[in-house]
């Protein structure tokens, strides 16, 4: 799990993407799906109409790891517990086209 603020290239992508969120649940076609990350184009920043949702397997290159401290470590632990519990009930989102 990459920290918020990490910068990545996605597979087949040419634009740097900054991770904004981990584990977003998105309503798609009247059902909730779970992605590993949401992100925005770097250095442009967040445009609410252009949020990208993607999974770990869509990442090609990690250019920068975001800030990590004891709060981040605690979040990772709690998030993994959630993923292995309630998170299993939510379908995993599938990225169907190249992003970034």
From TrEMBL:
It comes from the Bacteria. InterPro entries: DUF4176. This is Type II secretion protein.
